[in-house]
């Protein structure tokens, strides 16, 4: 089974961060991502899921907690590169509508700079 790796890097603005994920987000290996999301105080958090083949229920809950924590503090989070399998899980669990989703990091950063109220873009 593949292990989830999380790489944090700066966004295009000083108040943004990009987490690049590789591997599945599952109960077995989501703790590093959970910790980094809890510690992150950026105004804008972008999670690049291009390398995520699937997400289990623990992974869905982790992403929802990350989004709601940011909503409560007036910060933003976007998911990018969400593959078909992960997107299907988010849709089946009826949480996809709470996320801003984009095809790539550049699209997310551009949309969040110009229109922070955008709900979704594909």
Structure explained in plain terms:
- By secondary structure, the chain is α/β, with parallel strands linked by helices.
- 36% of the residues lie in helices and 24% in strands.
- The chain has one domain: STAS domain (Transcription Regulator spoIIAA), CATH 3.30.750.
- It is built from 4 helices and 5 strands, in the order E-E-H-E-H-E-H-E-H.
- The chain is globular, with a radius of gyration of 13 Å.
- The N and C termini lie far apart (30 Å).
Overall helicity? 25-40%
Report the sheet-strand fraction: 15-25%
- The residue-averaged pLDDT reads 90
Radius of gyration, whole Å? 13 Å
Structural class: alpha/beta
Q: What is the subunit arrangement here?
A: single chain
Q: Please state the overall shape, judged from the principal axes of the Cα atoms.
A: globular
Q: What key attributes describe this structure?
A:
single chain, 122 residues, alpha/beta, Transcription Regulator spoIIAA, 5-stranded mixed beta sheet, 5 strands, 36% helix, 24% strand, globular
What is the element layout, followed by pairings?
Elements: E1 5-10, E2 16-22, H1 31-39, E3 44-51, H2 57-72, E4 76-80, H3 84-92, E5 100-102, H4 105-114
Parallel strand pairs: 2-3, 3-4, 4-5
Antiparallel strand pairs: 1-2
Q: Can you summarize this structure?
A:
The protein has 122 residues and is α/β, with parallel strands linked by helices. Helix content is 36%, strand content 24%. The chain has a 5-stranded mixed beta sheet, with helices on both faces.
